[in-house]
Specification:
alpha/beta, 19 strands, six-stranded mixed β-sheet, Rossmann fold, globular, single chain
């Protein structure tokens, strides 16, 4: 006789979620998850994956950005009537952007914070901190300042701070975005071990499903606000699409003056013990796509922030068309270099999508007719036209915010495009479309410099790959490598 199946830890009936401007993103959704399941949640950007996670941890019900109807039970509790802090003892959440949940000055204090709120004995707290840090491979970071870490390192700190609480359920919203391939594999193995050894129930919303499809016990796909598939994990066939679109830009790179060059760049963040850049040298020509890869903390984002003057080198020279940019303002450089930061939230500030996209072109002196035509073109290319120009960027999903930020950069029509991890929150179809658009920019004579940990996206881009290690650029011998 089989033992009775345990009661679900997550039970949802008839859940619908509506935002004032985006409309309904989840429609009459039913879902039941039992203890110990490892669930991979997939679907296009903006389809409601993050909203579903926020309904499980109660953040949606206790916020003011939308309305939820239907019934949700988590560990027997109703998130709508349970304080978020009380539910957090049962449900741990790792957000897409680690900066949304990190606030302590150093790593050890960050991991300790939740345990302190539980009134845990100091000796047990020390054991939990070391256990969580070892689990996600950040023992070497415990004494570091949080602000001195790379984005991928901060992501792992956020995961450790949640794992240390020993929740019954762990929710992760795109946890591998911003983490290199080695780090992603390590994270997946850690989650697999936590699931198998401690029975932790795990729900992961992720576009980079290739890592998780091999370890999860269940795959749920959401399309048009409803569950379109719920069953054994499958690996969607992206390889053929990658092969079809992974050719290079098709542009001969002339042996001439580069449009953007970094010459022996050395830079140390204030208070840091060692330089983030230690003699980094790289040249980018018109008509070329350059993919900058390397582990977290190797200096990729720091180098890119030198391209438009956001950072000034301690030593070395940054040049545009052979002329040093030292002494020029970011605004002056913006007419040549369009820069996308890792997180759209750091660049979005206008009240509407239309105003956001028009802001930079207006400041560059574009005529009104050109701004209108350009906005229409980039919104269509990035699938933003369905949202409309009057929608608020700050009320969108992470993937939609990312596309708005990209649209704002493309609308500037600069000869150099510098993008730092541009695929955050983008589903495979959007990634393929973005890669195609950037290859087209190169064919039109623009220079494209990108950092990404997403090997599938890098393969779609083609072009030239260079590696960074310990603050230096190490050219590879060929094209994009998997």
């Amino acid at each position: 006789m089989r033992p009775p199946r345990p009661d679900p830890v997550i039970e949802i009936h008839g859940l619908s979620c509506t935002y004032p401007q985006r409309g309904t993103v989840l429609r009459d959704l039913d879902l039941s998850i039992r203890p110990g399941e490892f669930v991979l949640l997939t679907g296009p950007s903006g389809v409601g994956k993050s909203t579903l996670l926020r309904c499980i941890n109660g953040l949606f019900q206790h916020g003011d950005q939308g309305e939820a109807t239907g019934e949700v039970r988590v560990c027997g509790k109703d998130p709508a009537t349970t304080r978020v802090c009380d539910l957090a003892c049962e449900v741990g959440t790792v957000f897409q952007d680690p900066d949304h949940q990190l606030f302590s000055s150093d790593v050890e204090s960050e991991i300790a914070f939740g345990l302190e709120q539980l009134g845990m004995d100091p000796a047990q707290m020390r054991s939990r901190i070391e256990e969580a840090a070892a689990a996600v491979g950040i023992m070497h970071l415990l004494k570091r300042e949080v602000n001195a870490l790379s984005w991928g390192e901060r992501q792992r700190v956020a995961i450790a701070s949640v794992v240390a609480m020993h929740p019954r359920i762990l929710l992760l919203d795109e946890p591998t975005s911003g983490i290199d391939q080695s780090g992603a594999r390590h994270l997946v193995s850690v989650l697999k071990r936590l699931n198998q050894e401690s029975g932790l129930t795990i729900v992961v919303a992720e576009h980079r499903y290739d890592h998780f499809s091999r370890v999860c016990s269940r795959l749920i796909s959401i399309q048009d606000g409803a569950i379109s598939y719920d069953g054994p994990p499958t690996r969607p066939g992206l390889e053929a699409e990658v092969r079809d679109q992974s050719a290079g830009t098709g542009v001969e790179i002339p042996d001439c003056l580069p449009i953007l060059s970094f010459e022996e760049i050395v830079y140390t963040y204030p208070g840091a013990a060692r330089p983030a850049l230690n003699g980094a040298t790289l040249s980018v020509h018109t008509g070329e796509v350059v993919v900058l890869a390397g582990p977290n903390g190797s200096g990729k984002s720091t180098l890119l922030r030198h391209a438009n003057g956001l950072l000034a080198p301690d030593q070395g020279t940054v040049k545009i068309r052979g002329e040093a940019i030292a002494g020029k303002s970011v605004a002056e450089i913006a007419s040549t270099v369009g820069f996308l930061a890792q997180h759209a939230d750091t660049q979005l500030f206008a009240e509407t999508i239309g105003d956001e996209i028009a802001f930079a072109p207006e400041n560059l002196g574009f005529p009104h007719e050109k701004i209108e035509a350009t906005a229409t073109r980039v919104m269509g290319a990035l699938g933003l036209d369905r949202l409309g120009r009057l929608a608020s960027p700050l009320n969108l999903s992470v993937g939609e915010k990312q596309r708005v930020a990209i649209a704002g950069i493309l609308a500037m029509e600069t000869p150099v495009l510098v993008l730092d991890e541009p695929t955050l929150g983008l589903d495979p179809a959007r990634k393929a479309g973005l890669a195609e658009g950037l290859r087209r920019c190169a064919k039109e004579g623009k220079a494209v410099l990108i950092t990404t940990h997403d090997h599938e996206f890098a393969a779609l881009l083609g072009g030239r790959q260079v590696m960074m290690q310990d603050g230096r650029v190490v050219p590879s011998s060929g094209g994009v490598q998997g």
